[in-house]
Amino acid sequence: TLSDRLNGIFTKLRGKGRLTDADIDATAREIRLALLEADVALPVVRGFIARIKERARGSEVSQALNPAQQVIKIVHEELVNVLGGDTRRLQLAKQPPSVIMLAGLQGSGKTTLAGKLARFLAGQGHQPLLVAADLQRPNAVTQLQVLGERAGVEVFAPEPGNGVGDPVDVARASIEHAKRVARDIVIVDTAGRLGIDAEMMAQAANIRDAVDPDEVLFVIDAMVGQDAVNTAEAFRDGVGITGVVLSKLDGDARGGAALSVREVTGQPILFASTGEKLEDFDIFHPDRMASRILGMGDVLTLIEQAEQAFDADQKEKMTAKLMGGEQFTLEDFLDQMVAMRRMGPIANVLAMMPGMGQVKDQLADLDDKHFDRVTAIIRSMTPNERVNPKIINGSRRARIANGSGVTVMDVNQLLNRFVEAQKMMKQMGGMMGLPGSRRKAT
Ligand code: GDP
Ligand code: MG
């Protein structure tokens, strides 16, 4: 996985003080693979990586991160920018009804989205009208009617028995109807083909001209992969797109289509569809998608938290200590524990650490309550005891136990465990680019 590969790079790069071109190239190569694996289209990947390298070269050295982590942070930030640079809400007409037209290939999730959007907008106090302008497939109208009923939203469809109407006429008539019955948002579902098709595109363009939409939302299946670019270009040129909706994000696709479509259309991704139920729907979150594309949400979270939790001072102190081979004291243990507690429940923190599998088992019993108790014990020690645990004899143990409200056995246990913890902390610290990684040249 990407995390594993990046972890390899982390290890190699640990100990370096700043980003060299070789560091940047190596990390960029891994990111490039990650993007391709996520099905971002090749030309999009090329442009993106070029921008990343540019930015990484000029970047400042962060105290808390090692070079690979820094590049990854830049990549993530840049992805979030690209995916959400101009995220916006639906643009509605000054004079209702607003018209939202849906376009996309067959099976991309348009009809489902129509229902979701109707429910979403109704929940915001709007009075939407759903319009069945897909008269291609026999059950397309019924499908929309079922969804409309579930969403509690009226569906405008050709009268049954009248034969199959013309979708352009239906769409045009729906606007008149919406005005008559005072609906403020009209959602027009349209037909799609399995592939891009001139006739379908012409029909979509005709419907567009008939309803003069405020939004043309291009719905694309996130699983679609490399083909996303062609499809997006066809709809951009054939109908004109004002916004994008990603569907089927509940699947296991990495979501590279998002990036490709965003780049090709130049239009924002407004919504994400994440299931078959009406409520499986959300406003698009660029940061989540960026993490998904990189397949490294956990690593990123850890980087962020590590950066926040360890201030530069503390880090330098620890680094100097461990680099100098000085004894890692209970005082340091306590400092680190407090910092780690700030990062969240210890189990979560451990779960996020690359390569922490083995140690995690060993620490399974170190739950949060335990950590709090350990903290209390150490706080009951004198500064001298914390630096020289060896001097903690029987009477001192009794005093400490008393002071922290635990048994002498608990204190013994902690002191025994401390030796193991020394090793563990060294390992964890190293992973976060902390102790023993870099040291200011003196
Ligand atoms: P349309 O042809 O563009 O109108 O696509 P539909 O809305 O009919 O969706 C095609 C199929 O995909 C249907 O079986 C939907 O239930 C399913 N579908 C649509 N959106 C999603 C989604 O976000 N997640 C999942 N898992 N299925 C979806
Ligand atoms: Mg449909």
TrEMBL record:
One of its GO terms (molecular function) is GTP binding. Keywords: Cytoplasm, GTP-binding, Hydrolase, Nucleotide-binding, Ribonucleoprotein, RNA-binding, Signal recognition particle. It is found in: Cytoplasm. It comes from the Bacteria. GTP binds at residues 104-111, 189-193, 247-250. It catalyses: GTP + H2O = GDP + phosphate + H(+). The keyword Ribonucleoprotein applies. GO terms for biological process: SRP-dependent cotranslational protein targeting to membrane. SUPFAM superfamilies: P-loop containing nucleoside triphosphate hydrolases, Signal peptide-binding domain. It is an enzyme of class 3 (hydrolase). One of its GO terms (cellular component) is signal recognition particle. Residues 268-281 form the SRP54-type proteins GTP-binding domain. Part of the signal recognition particle protein translocation system, which is composed of SRP and FtsY. Belongs to the GTP-binding SRP family. SRP54 subfamily. This is Signal recognition particle protein. It comes from Asanoa ishikariensis. The lineage of its organism: Bacteria, Bacillati, Actinomycetota, Actinomycetes, Micromonosporales. The gene is ffh.
